[in-house]
Amino acid sequence: MPEMPEVEGLVQFLREHTDGRAVAAVEVGAISALKTFSPAPTALVRRVVRGVTRHGKWLDVATVAGAAAPEADDGELHLVFHLAKAGWLRWYDEVPRTTVKPGRSPIALRVRLDDGAGFDLTEAGTRKRLAVHVVTDPQDVPQVATLGVEPADLTLEGLRVLLAARNQQVKGLLRDQSVIAGIGNAYSDEILHAARTSPFALTKTFDDDASARLHAAISEVLTAAVAEAAGRPAAELKDAKRRGMRVHGRTGLPCPVCGDTVREVSFADSALQYCPTCQTGGKPLADRRMSKLLK
């Protein structure tokens, strides 16, 4: 799933390639991806892109009425989308001329620009979760309106408050979008490895030192990942993310810090990775399908 660093990379890329361009056409390939119906996606046609931003893991393409659409109102219209677990943005310098046919391909939405370029929102697999909203205000999207603090705005004192608010596993706290916006499964693994913290550590057990280590790890891991994503074409962002991982997605490989074997805990539809030496005092965690920890 694209998380904050990759989404920020996509924002920078789209901002560079779409700002000032008019939308020439919008084609819907998956009706299920549309979460709003009024305004319709075609309402974006002939409007001009005037900014691309990010809200957590959500991308926001803002458009305004252009000279080609004098009948449109003066307000903004936003294309807001979440790529979900298996979604991605495919950029074209020249969009294929063929029209997208609903249900015939992984393409959920195609946006054509007036210079011939554009992009597809695609989703692989059978579980379709990609979400597309066309709204006059991004806050009209409930998942955007309820987002928590951006990691860059999270102070150490603010993190201490979040840790003390309720007693839960720290992995779950980091992934909760209503608490901290933009961190998912992959970067929570990386942050906890950098903080030398078990993913199952309970938040109310964090003392000042553990809280400071976690805060520093959030900043360091995400800052480095954003820098790695900056300036890359959309097609390169996934590979750049994988190359930067120390534990996530590296089950069975040596930890780059201590050399211990990276372990995995599996869930119904996801998994986490960690290093026993760096994070759990050398004790492997049992697979959660066994509903207990190894003693």
TrEMBL record:
Keyword DNA damage: yes
Cofactor(s) required, per the database record: Zn(2+)
InterPro entries documented for this protein: FPG_cat, FPG_N, H2TH_FPG, Ribosomal_uS13-like_H2TH, Znf_DNA_glyclase/AP_lyase, Znf_FPG/IleRS
Limits of the Formamidopyrimidine-DNA glycosylase catalytic domain: 2-130
Reactions that this protein is recorded to catalyse: Hydrolysis of DNA containing ring-opened 7-methylguanine residues, releasing 2,6-diamino-4-hydroxy-5-(N-methyl)formamidopyrimidine
Keywords: DNA damage, DNA repair, DNA-binding, Glycosidase, Hydrolase, Lyase, Metal-binding, Multifunctional enzyme, Zinc, Zinc-finger
One example GO MF annotation: DNA-(apurinic or apyrimidinic site) endonuclease activity
PROSITE patterns (alphabetical): FPG_CAT (PS51068), ZF_FPG_2 (PS51066)
Pfam family membership, one: H2TH
Boundaries of every FPG-type domain copy: 246-280
Any GO BP annotation: base-excision repair
Entry's family note: Belongs to the FPG family.
PANTHER family referenced in this protein's UniProt entry, alphabetically: FORMAMIDOPYRIMIDINE-DNA GLYCOSYLASE
Protein name, entry field: Fpg/Nei family DNA glycosylase
Origin species: Georgenia yuyongxinii
